[in-house]
Design goal:
This protein is α/β, with parallel strands linked by helices. The protein is 29% helix and 27% strand. The chain has one domain: Macrophage Migration Inhibitory Factor (2-Layer Sandwich), CATH 3.30.429.10. The longest helix is centred in the middle third of the chain and has 19 residues.
């Protein structure tokens, strides 16, 4: 853990390299010093159907960051700000003049017993 999922409007696939976006966000997450590389996951999901604002040519990208318990609010807020800034910095030059809404929410799992991670061999390959 942490896992960051992002949902995006379908037209963004034609406008930006979203695999590159995922890599940039992964790097930003690790660079915060808050999250371990081996536990970091970034996943993107296209929303085939979406209507934003007035139904015009508007795009969106919404990120949800899930993390385990144990970090104070200041640490979580600083990590969220760093991740959002990285997303904004990566997207802005690739979407000049686009109408796009970017958002991030942070969710903390309430208990370690509700996040089972026994089978993880990623660490063996880093």
């Amino acid at each position: 853990m942490p896992h960051l999922s992002f949902e995006y409007s379908a037209l963004l696939e034609d406008r930006a390299d979203l695999r590159g976006f995922a890599s940039a966000i992964r790097d930003a997450m690790v660079e915060t010093g808050v999250f371990p590389l081996a536990g970091t996951r970034v996943r993107g999901y296209r929303a085939d159907i979406s209507v934003t604002a007035d139904g015009g040519a508007h795009d969106f990208l919404h990120m949800t960051l899930k993390m385990g318990v144990g970090r104070d609010d200041a640490t979580k807020a600083a990590a969220a700000e760093a991740i959002y800034t990285a997303a904004e910095d990566w997207l802005r030059p690739r979407l000049p003049g686009a109408s796009v809404a970017v958002s991030l929410e942070v969710l903390e799992l309430p208990s370690p017993s509700l996040s089972i991670k026994r089978f993880n061999t990623v660490r063996d390959h880093l």
